[in-house]
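If I may wish for something, please walk me through the protein I am sending here so I can picture the backbone:
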Amino acid sequence: MDIPDRILQRLYTYGSLKNADRGAEFEIKNRLQDAKVTGVSRVVVDRQRVDLEDVRVVAADEHEYTLDEIDEGRPINFPVGRTVVIVVEGIDLRAGEHEIEIDFIADPFGELTLEVTDSIRDEEAVGGIPRDDEDNYSESAIAARHEYIAAETGVELEHVPRNSFDADVTEGNVENFIGVAQMPLGLAGPVQVNGEHADGEYPVPLATTEGTLVASYSRGMKAINLSGGAKTTVVDDNMNRAPVFVFEDARNARDFRDWVFEHMDTIREKAEATSSVAQLVRIEDYVTNNHVHLRFDYTTGDAAGQNMVGKATFAACNWVLSEYPGYVENFYLEGNFATDKKASKINDLQTRGKRVTAETTLSEQTILHHLGAEPEAIHHHAQVATLGSFFSGANTNGAHPANGLASLFIACGQDEANVAESSAAMVNTTLLDDNSLHVSVTIPSLIVATYGGGTGLPTQSECLSMLGCDGPGNVEKFAEIAAAVVLAGELSLASAISASDWVTSHDELGRNR
């Protein structure tokens, strides 16, 4: 198997070189596909060949082997994502850079050679946050970090350590736990949602430090309720990972693209084998210069799915790299074309997460007597604001989609960085013959989850439960509620701006009064 040198070198784990009790050691991590190590034929450290009797291999299951215990009949399992440690007994390396060379055999790759330069750091000079390798969520580990903060900053923590749940429930959600950031949590609404998944009135928890936000969203929700509710529609569901492959020239890039689509069935099989949930819907192809960007599009059930699709795409790409008959100069699992946690035009067009629309028609009386503005004024402001958004290059023509989404995300255990994509909403107003106003909001990249990630944390799970969205089977429902929240915020702020009430409302309810 012809593995590009730049990809091969990634098997070595940089920063792993260190002195241990019996010698020096370093790590090799399988970043390609499931394999078996069948031998090590050469190890060189700083241009000095090592006696192979002094070399040990520690497998992923922590079992240790001498080299004469490894051969084709007695291989070491080397699954993708797992590490083997190479131990060279009897040497002690100075701090600084060292040259490492190793020849080994792995099925199905064949003979592989790694030549890298790694460093041993003076750990005492580096320092770092206190941690416990056995249990980093224990009371003693947390207390050590509190003492570290006091010593380094002079701050004795009073409020941060007051959490109502055991620290170990946060494992997998945060590292080096020290406590909680307590944010005010308000209740907006309720809002009437007339969706295909959400159907009813929902009180909405919003975590924020911005005065007037909850009141403003509640005002918009009341306007929606007076208009019969928000009609919501999930149009598309699509989570992406976009690897990039680099070739000698554009012709080779095109040929590779064609080969990928000829083998689509097998690629789908390899990707979906990594998950019981992920389903590969399609692969988008974008060829530029000598680069091939492939945007793998999946459905991911009730999870947001970024990690899920990363694992699935990685498996598919490893198969592609091993089977493609041509030469791939380089490969990266993400070429920044999925635009993870960044707003982008490609996501507006092709969707990332849920594509959902919320809409309502407000009567003239509702707008005048509840929102305090005239329908014509709101409609005209929407036209002016759209031009301003276009001129400024903003990611939305809305007033503040990120406001409600950020507050809802924090309350309900969503990945808050996904607000960057999710806030790219498109607002449209239509003034009807009876002077009523139809307002709709489409969110093309709403990334939400009701399972996995932070949704299982105690506070966040309770907030999801308030909405009837806790656990599997509820992600479309939550998406529809989120879209209705954005619609409410747009109605309220657009009315305040149109009626020149924006500043006075903040003066009355906000911290700047």
